[in-house]
Amino acid sequence: MSELYDDLRCCPLYDGIDRQEYELLIEKSRRVRVRAGECIFDIGDPAEEIYLITEGCVSFQYHALSGKRVTLGLADPYMVIGDMELLDPTPRKSRAFVIQNCSLIVTDKHAFLALCRRCPVIYERLLKIYSRRLQYAARTMLLKNDEQLLCSILLNLAKRFGCDDGKGIEIQLPLSQEELASYLGTPRQRLNRMLGEFKRQGWIDVSYSKITLLNVEAMELLLEVDE
Questions:
Q1: What are the structural domain ranges in the chain?
Q2: In this structure, are strands 162-164 and 169-171 parallel, antiparallel, or unpaired?
Q3: CA–CA dist 222, 227 (Å, integer)
Q4: CATH class entry, domain 3-141
Q5: Quick check: 149 and 181 in contact, CB under 8 A?
Q6: Which CATH class, in words, describes the domain spanning 145-223?
């Protein structure tokens, strides 16, 4: 129980709630480990649980009408996933695909919703999370082309998963070019051409599945859009 308690306390969504509330949550929670390449839940699954990531990384995917797989975003440690369908009871609308071995705390939906009713601050924090997601989506819509979108994605990944290796910021995430192309919503061949052009300009270095940002300032400059 103490291990679950320590991890739950690290989650910003649950920050500051009473010890008794944590204990009630833990009674309806369990630890689950999921390996890379597996799904936590899939499109159409019933929404019966909420998940707190304590280790690893998860991508959210859906299939467009064309049949193409599209990545909607990534979730990393101490982010909660699977929450939206609990507030609006519907089947899962996306697939949660593990790209880095995950450890999760899985909580029954009724226990989570009961906590929200007892602690309305949880609802307020969820609204802030959804607001940030909408703001990011709105900024993305202002981008004019795939090059700007790729810059935005790489800068975001570097901020969340980057480490200074002495020559630049290395994105320490095992994201394949196929997965990155899915995130960008473009064919892999198009992604390869853009990565090659960024490399020729000295903005990035690409080695196998690793991408290192060498000129963050130039990439940020590309993101400037007209008012």
A1: 3-141, 145-223
A2: antiparallel
A3: 14
A4: mainly beta
A5: no
A6: mainly alpha
